[in-house]
Amino acid sequence: MRSRAPPPPLPLVVLLLGGWASLCGAFYLPGLAPVSFCDEGGEKAGCKSKIELFVNRLDSVESVLPYEYDAFDFCQDAEEKRPSENLGQVLFGERIASSPYKFTFKKNQQCQVACMKSYDPENTNDKNKLEFLKKGMRLNYQHHWIIDNMPVTWCYDFGELHKFCNPGFPVGCFVASDGRAKDSCTINSEFNKKNTYYLFNHVDITITYHSAQNENWLGARLVTARLEPKSYKQTDINNLSCEGPPMEISAEFNSKLNLIYSYSVKFEENNNIKWASRWDYILESMPHTNIQWFSIMNSLVIVLFLSGMVAMILLRTLHKDIARYNQIDSSEDAQEEFGWKLVHGDVFRPPRKGMLLSVFLGQGTQIFIMTFITLFLACLGFLSPANRGALMTCAVVLWVLLGTPAGYVSARMYKTFRGEKWKTNVLLTALLCPGIVFADFFIMNLILWVKGSSAAIPFGTLVAILAMWFGISVPLTFVGAYFGFKEKPIEHPVRTNQIPRQIPEQSFFTKPLPGIIMGGILPFGCIFIQLFFILNSIWSHQMYYMFGFLFLVFIILLITCSEATVLLCYFHLCAEDYHWWWRSFLTSSFTAVYLFIYAVHYFFSKLQITGTASTILYFGYTMIMVLIFFLFTGTIGFFACFWFVSKIYSVVKVD
Question: Which of 256, 366, 500, 592 is deepest in the core (most CB within 10 A)?
Fold first, then answer.
């Protein structure tokens, strides 16, 4: 039974949550140690003058297919270097390489040549390269450049009072045949010729640094890197002016074409920005915080409503039920039993398909622990955007190492269900759900590989993932299952009758399907706003950094799934329907169906994705998310209901 302590007032709850969210936002551990830069000639140990610009993959909101920088015919470094990438970066398709854009600290440069590319209409290879470049402009592909592990941002006015800083900038833009300027062609009135592409072939880069005056370190540290893309029609590579009409590329390729890429760079000092907070200007430009607070308040109202309902049932109705049941001693009164006590001899009867349910519970436990630890570390700042790929790497490694709890929970529950095929149980726990995810992932990877996308996982990485699965995760699952089967089955507080009791005719609302459909609505109501930002970060390539809010929503989701399942479970038991095992799992896991419906709505209303391959990829990856969410929420609901049922039948007297 729950204690009768009054719930804390809403303002106090909001204040505590606000403090936690702000702590998670403020405690920031960047991914790398700071690098100091000195003037040319003044280099010392731990201080360098050369600044390298690295290029990453190009992506688009109109296509799920990212491409390597080298896939487009841009300027390439003669001595190309590729920094080592972690597992998360490889899985997300990041491909970082050095570029020909080299700078010297504090040395301003004006209108420097990066390279020139020539295209001949007679040459098939040139035609294909130019066509691919046009496709990049038509689908609004974005460059992602990096200086000192920091994104080079393009900041522009967004509305009257707001400035938005985008960690990418477009390859170019396209004016359609009807004269409609698409995407970034709207920023310049000179981009007005119909059926014409405009290439951003010049960049003005501004690097801001924090000098070491009155500090205990040498030189200076870079705190921002901004650029402004420009389009100039250059004709003489030896005499650049970086002004004049824009660089037009006609849709019809009939004559020779020379594209000259150029850049300017200038350095500015700003001692107001600290190195540790240098990402803040990007994050602050994203107008999300107010909506996040609305999301938290919305979730809190749902939780308080559900908690009130559950508290009322536990403290009033259940208390009366138990008191009344325990007062009945005489045999004639015993004939007048009704409600949930009637089914005490059947409530712990093992479910049908107990093997599958136990496997789902094992996998769900593994996902729950993985998600909790990953979000907690992210909330503390260990998996910040500066630490590229760390979030995905952490999640995958944790999943591999958490095979033991999966095996243990699955084996223990299967034994409780009186199952005897323990070998099948262990193999299914280790292989069923990960196998489905891997098969889906492999098909998606084949599509990416056929399309030549940078997101295609190299064969070596696929082998490494399989080795981690079969070499670490599967043996750990076997170890967990061994200990699970050695344990005694979970003891139930009441005995199960040999002959099953007949279930009376149920009303519409106590039938399984309506209850399951209703059960998923409230948990989904808690997460749908947060879900919008998560989908934005995945498909619209926006940075996701508010892990404090996400961790709060995660905790609220746990509470909501548990309470909604317990509430419906109580109603069904009162209606003398004792088939609660699968229903408790499916009630909360139905939230995953609403997640899928929302993902379909998001695809058609928010994204401009074109092409069959991109559509298949979107729904393929969405299905992996839905399966993981299905297992996770179902497991939470099941164990909450299992605890509730065990508790209420343990305090009632049964002959």
Answer: 366
